[in-house]
Design brief:
Elements: E1 8-9, E2 11-15, E3 18-19, E4 24-26, E5 29-35, H1 48-55, E6 58-59, E7 68-74, E8 83-84, H2 85-103, E9 124-127, E10 136-142, E11 145-151, E12 158-159, E13 168-169, H3 174-186, H4 189-204, H5 214-229, H6 236-247, H7 272-288, H8 302-323, H9 331-338, H10 340-343, H11 359-375
Parallel strand pairs: 3-13, 6-12
Antiparallel strand pairs: 1-8, 2-7, 2-9, 4-5, 5-7, 10-11
Amino acid sequence: MKEGTAQTTRGIAFFPWLTLDAERKRGRFRLVPYRVGRSDNAVSLIQHAHIDQALRIYRDSRRKPLKECVLLAFSDGAIGADLSEADVQDIFIFGELLAFSALVQRRFFLNGLGYVSRDHYALLVQQIPEHFSGTIALTYRRRDGGITHGIGADDYPIQIPPHVGEQESVAHDDMLLASLLLAWSEMSAKDWQRCYEAINAFNLANTDSEAVPPHMELVLLHGAFERALGVKGGNTHDLVAKLGGCLQIGARVQCRTKGAIQPKPKSNEPYVLEAWARDFCVSRGSVAHGHDYAAAKPTWSLRNHLLLATYLLPLVMKRLLAKSGMLVIRDEDVALIDAFESLASFDHFTRFSQLTTPPWRRIMTEVELDLMARKFEP
């Protein structure tokens, strides 16, 4: 653990809405399962009874105190060890990287199976003083500084957000997380800042919280692409060109394919990726400057843009990390990249008959079957 500063925090870092079967070490950090009231929890410098008391304030969907959660600690430090301000900052950076690595693995249009939001990976640091009474202090930022409230577990319980619903088991792209941790330590400060800001913007756009309206998610996702690709000044032409150069899609899908979404008649883009990217930029510009989304007369609906951008940004990040020598692109990643133009050719929010397989699920099934077939090739 880093050398502490004069100001330290005695407490725990934890993910209240996650569960875990066994401890995992990832770089400088370790994820530790914690079960309330159990004597076999990991060794801690803070009494387990005090940790149990601190966790009583957090409630599940049935308003019952949590029975388990996941603690986060440094690999070379004990649970409950004093944390410096730099330690806390590093803990939150790791939390963002873990969340991003989890969001990458999401699957869509499977009736909720394999789906998580950014808020499942909410990370908290809770101070627990040596003589803990069960009352905790919650500090909130304000425009004029901040305010701290002291509350008891039964006075003001914090329930799992409705859009999160239930706790989920930790699941993430392990190779991607390892690559991001390597980039954190090996990239130049400037390149890492750009990478991290792209990840942070992406995560903020994927909370599923009503507090972040869809038009703001669009602005955040556009910003994530700009930061990842190094686009300056909102240059649409630059973003479109860099996106195509980065992804290197194999089998291209031309615009105006029969039965697919039709780009604007004046669009000169021959392929779907560039037509979509230009439409994405124009749509973002409209809402970012205070106009209604429809004012730009977009080809793709707002919901389709959010879905497609969310699918694509992690693949862009993987390509960029591979270019930096910090990640090996897998066949699965290439297949998902190549599938983008087919996915972007359909309106995925049109109502379909129950007897009709939604386009997204059909295309993704084809990708999965093709990958499976390749594994059995001689």
